[in-house]
Amino acid sequence: MRKRNLKFIPTIFLFSFLIAFPSFAQPHITVGIQDSIQQEILGQIVGTYLEEKGFKVKYKMSLSNSSLYSALTKKEVDLAWQDPASVWFLKFLRTDILSSKKLYKEVKELEENKGLLWFKIANLENQYVPVMQRKKSEKLEITTISELADCVRKDEKKIRVVMSSEFFFRPDCYFDLKQIYGFSFYRPNVRLISSTIGFGLLSGDQVDVVFAFSTDPPIEKLNLIKLKDDKKALKSYCMGIVIREEIMDRFSDLSSLVEKLIRISPATSEIARLNLKVYNGVSSKEVAREYLREKGLIDIKRE
Amino acid sequence: MRRRITLFILLGILIGITVWITNLEMLKFRPPATYGELFVRISEHFKMVGFAELIAIGVGVPLGILITRPKFRKISPLVMGVVNIGQTVPSMAVVAIMAVIMGEFGFIPAVIALFIYGLLPIVRNTYAGINSIDPSIIESARGMGMSKRQIIWKIELSLARPVIMAGIRTSTVINVGTAALAALIAAGGLGMIILAGLLNNIPLLLLQGAAPTAALAIILDAILGSIEEWMTPRGLKIKRGT
Fold first, then answer.
1. Dihedrals phi, psi of A223, to nearest 5 degrees
2. Are A201 and B106 in contact (CB < 8 Å)?
3. Which among B40, B106, B199 has CB closest to A64?
């Protein structure tokens, strides 16, 4: 009987050690990464750079928009790349459509009250674009969104669409598009899933149009055609880096590092090239490292 | 009777919630799914579960019978092990793996994933139901001069029917829930509405997808229950106190 009781003791020790273990960990920075190739590369660029400079970095991958917001407020994520437009429309639920500059300013002010600091990445822009298969577009004679709108108006059940649910619910995206072009898709034909799966459906001819980011690698790889936005309905917004104020205060040299990073952050044309590399099978970590080396932020000798 | 009334009340609440949200004028920029979309998604959901269950019954019941035959009894642990794998892998992974293996998205991989996921309860219950029959009953049937086929149809299957049907009902109800995950591989269904609500933080939309899913599970279970009642010979019905 006594022997049996003793057996429990090491188990209890082990458990308590496991539970208490995270609190022994040294201070680190957690980088939040959203669920797309581009976000992964951008997150890895920041993370790798900070790692090289002696910080301990952890990653939280594949966060959705809304889970990233809550992770930032719950202090589970310290640093992340974000699209100010999606914060404005989906986090703060604003419905007024502003210019890129003004929207960034407003978001920055709103977020500062919540202890989140924004840094602007001016040369990196996010823009949605509808894409089609080349064959299909020739067959239906659609090269612009106006022609797409005409086609939908004629026979609304003909066109099957994939868009991300963010695109569907953001006031400046699908709602605005509907108003400016004066059409709307037949709703049961609209599938709200990520564009990554949308490209798979597109090549299997299960859908006709996918609303994707202009820098998505499959567009080039699958030789898809981008529909021209002839009435300028789809806006583009710059990206930003968000850092929690506490972290900024704790690591005093962080701000200078981030500023250096912003100066070399990839432009819209460059990120498309990096995306394609990852899409072809190179790991995002490797691509980020190579990019930093190209820009001279990491010493070649240390590798 | 009392059980049926509770069921109807629950069903009424779920359908009421769905109708209420669909009619709701939410903020202009957060629209709920329209009736047209809702019906399409429900029919997609129903089709997925229906096809998967039909295949699972068509494969599972004969398989369950087969592994109780003396010749194949030895391989029954093997079969159960293989079928078990379908359930031990998380449902989301089964759905995703199927899409990756087949290299395409949509309806067909979703049905196959649901089939794999729904197989275990059916095979296991068929196996257990037939195994639990008293051997002396089968012995006496053989003594009466029944052929092997007659023993399967008239003795084993009729006596094991409640257990087998319980397996089918379990598998169907589980699969209605699992089919919501098929939205991840673009197979549509009510999961698409749930997912849109989840990703954009719109709780009402979540509810609009979840309530009909639950209602569908209840309805399908009730339909299968009445089929079971209809199939049971009058002599075998046990009178339950109401």
1. 55, 50
2. yes
3. B199
Shortest distance between the Cα of B90 and any Cα of chain A, in A, equals 18
From the list B105, B93, B56, B52, the residue with the least C-alpha distance to B181 is B93
SS (H, E, C) chain A: CHHHHHHHHHHHHHHHHHHHHHHHCCCCEEEEEECCHHHHHHHHHHHHHHHHCCCCEEEEEEECHHHHHHHHHCCCCCEEEECHHHHHHHHCCCCCCCCHHHHHHHHHHHHHCCCEEEEEEEEEEEEEEEEEEHHHHHHHCCCEHHHHHHHHHHCCCCCCEEECHHHHHCHHHHHHHHHHHCCCCCHHHEEECCHHHHHHHHHCCCCCEEEEECCCHHHHHCCEEECECCCCCCCEEEEEEEEEHHHHHHCCCHHHHHHHHHHHCCCHHHHHHHHHHHHCCCCHHHHHHHHHHHCCCCCCCCC
Q: Mutation test of the interface with chain A: which of B98, B107, B199, choosing the one with the most A Cβ atoms within 10 A?
A: B199
Q: Nearest Cβ partner of A66 from B37, B185, B200?
A: B200
Provide the CB-side half-sphere exposure for A195 (13 A, CA): 23
Q: What's the pLDDT tens digit per position in A4-13?
A: 667 777 777 7
| Residue range A139-170, pLDDT digits in tens | 999 999 999 999 999 998 889 999 988 898 88
Q: Dihedral of CA B226/B228/B230/B236: which sign?
A: negative
Q: Do A65 and B200 touch (CB under 8 A)?
A: yes
Tokens of B31: 């629209």
Which of B29, B186, B198 is facing A193, going by the closest CB pair? Answer: B186
CA distances from B84 to A287, B80, B122 (A): 41, 6, 11
Smallest CA-to-CA distance from B236 within B185, B173, B165 is with: B165
* Contacting residues for B139 by C-beta, under 8 A, at least 6 apart: none
**Cα–Cα dist B94/B19, whole Å:** 32
A179 close contact with B: CB closer than 8 A: no
Element (H, E) at B231: helix B203-231
B35 CB near a chain A CB, below 8 Å?
no
Tell whether B184 is within 8 A of chain A (Cβ). Answer: yes
Between helix B2-23 and helix B35-66 the angle, nearest 10°, is: 140
ipTM of the complex: 0.74
- The secondary element (H helix, E strand) that includes residue B47 is helix B35-66
Closest-CA residue to A46 (of A65, A62, A30):
A30
Question: pLDDT tens digits, residue range B118-135?
Answer: 999 999 999 999 999 999
Rounded to whole angstroms, how far apart are CA atoms B19 and B22? 5
Q: What's chain A's Rg over C-alpha atoms?
A: 23
A14 vs A4, A23, A213, CA distance in Å?
17, 15, 48
Angle between helices A37-52 and A284-294 (to 10 degrees): 60
Chain A residues touching residue B27 (CB < 8 angstroms): 93, 95
Question: What percentage of chain A carries pLDDT values higher than 90?
Answer: 30
